[in-house]
Specification:
InterPro entries: ADH-like_N (IPR013154), ER (IPR020843), GroES-like_sf (IPR011032), NAD(P)-bd_dom_sf (IPR036291). Residues 57-367 form the Enoyl reductase (ER) domain. This is Enoyl reductase (ER) domain-containing protein. Keywords: NADP, Oxidoreductase. The chain has 389 residues and is an alpha/beta fold. The protein folds into 3 domains: 9-34, no CATH class; 55-165 and 312-368, Quinone Oxidoreductase, Chain A, domain 1, CATH 3.90.180; 178-305, Rossmann fold (3-Layer(aba) Sandwich), CATH 3.40.50. Helices cover 32% and strands 23% of the residues. The protein is built from 12 helices and 17 strands. The strands form 4 sheets. Strands 5, 6, 7, 8, 9, 16 and 17 form a 7-stranded mixed sheet that branches. The protein is globular and about 90 Å long.
């Protein structure tokens, strides 16, 4: 370096015993010499992998480990899946944090996959079929599932799009079956920028109902207003009392016919206050849920708690029919995959969970599962761009 600064640096280097004979680069920090060195990279996991955690309580507990091969064939009514993508739900975050009520089982169920092996008693599925549905511990290269909880899909949906739908669309479908809104009815969808809210908005427009939504952060308002599929929706604030005041001003002398609620505290009471006689509030939240006694003492509107996880466990045959209806509507282009943010499992697992935990996502958070395909050793392979980095 030329000039006085260069002379001062050179003098400092010589004073520290640096000759320049072996190290072309050196940095001085707090009177100490530092030279660059390559650090050994952490070993990557190859082959089939799965997500693992030793204890619940923090997202940082999650890690990727090798997945052992399942030696036993699928049982009757069971399928083995080569998982391609998993859609995260907020219950997966609560599960990892250890605050989900009851025993939630392993995180990750909404998946899109290829059928790798079939047990007996699964006539609607064949090896090689692309499927969507609910898998067990699907954050892995391979997972197993009750065949009644999977439905074949065609090329109308990519794997990433398909995994955004099983829980979101089935939850909305159950809610609308319970509330029976019709064309012209006015519905309020809480947390409209989330997966269930987006699916409910699409469904409400399809049946001809008018849908208003609540959205929290200002950038989500902008995203929702300018989204191609969502343009023209009415938004109201999601901040406590302002929500009730804004919604009441929006409604004027009218009242809501249907509320799909996932929020707690004042939003439940405020939503009941906005419902008209004969209206219905469908509760899909898991925290601070009202008891039936409290609801009956507070409002004449109907109150229905929607628990898709219990429905899956208790009536898998009904779930099979619902997933097949979902698949048929996707094939007919009546519905489509939800907006999503996609993360690679091998590099973005923690980021995916933290994004959903912080509520900064718009649409669904999706984790792409790495391929287990390997190149055969006794073959010729062509590398394109082999002189690059």
């Amino acid at each position: 370096q030329a000039g006085a600064a260069g002379s001062t640096a050179a003098a400092a280097l010589l004073g520290l015993g640096y000759s320049g004979a072996t190290e072309p680069e050196v940095a001085i920090t707090c009177g100490a010499l530092h030279v660059p060195r390559l650090a050994e990279a952490a070993g990557s996991v190859s082959g089939p992998v799965r997500m693992h955690f030793d204890a619940r309580g923090a997202v940082s507990n999650l890690r990727i480990v090798p997945q052992a091969e399942e030696s036993s064939p699928p049982a009757d009514g069971e399928v083995e899946l080569r998982v391609r993508a998993v859609g995260l739900n907020f219950r997966d975050v609560l599960n990892v944090l250890g605050v989900y009520p009851g025993d939630p089982g392993p995180p990750g169920s909404d998946c899109a996959a290829d059928v790798a092996r079939c047990g007996g008693g699964a006539p609607h599925l064949r090896v090689g079929d692309a499927v969507l549905g609910h898998g067990l511990a699907a954050l892995a290269s391979f997972a197993r599932s009750d065949s009644r909880l999977m439905a074949a899909i065609d090329d109308s949906l990519s794997f990433e799009q398909a995994c955004t739908l099983p829980t979101t669309w089935c939850t909305v479908h159950m809610s609308l079956l319970a509330s029976r809104p019709r064309a012209g009815h006015h519905a309020l969808l809480q947390a409209g920028a989330g997966g269930v809210g987006l699916a409910a908005g699409d469904y409400a427009r399809w049946i001809g109902a008018r849908a208003s939504v609540t959205v929290g952060r200002p950038y989500k308002h902008c995203w929702y207003l300018h989204g191609v599929a969502l343009r023209g929706e009415t938004l109201s604030s999601r901040d406590g009392g302002a929500f009730v005041v804004g919604a009441a001003a929006l409604l004027g002398a009218s009242r809501l016919s249907f509320v799909l609620n996932s929020l707690s505290a004042d939003f439940i009471a405020g939503s009941f206050a906005l419902l008209g006689e004969g209206g219905c509030l469908c509760e899909i939240g898991k925290r601070a849920v009202w008891s039936a006694e409290r609801q009956r003492s507070a409002s004449a509107a109907r109150y229905v708690a929607i628990a898709l996880d219990s429905t899956i466990e208790q009536t898998p045959v009904w779930m099979r029919g619902t997933l097949q209806l979902l698949s048929a509507r996707a094939a007919a282009r009546v519905l489509h995959g939800l907006p999503l943010q996609s993360f690679a499992m091998e590099s973005g697992l923690l980021s995916a969970f933290r994004t959903l935990q912080a509520g900064t996502n718009t649409g669904k958070v999706v984790i792409r599962i790495p391929s287990t395909a390997t190149a055969p050793p006794r073959a010729t392979h062509l590398l394109s761009g082999g002189t690059g980095g």
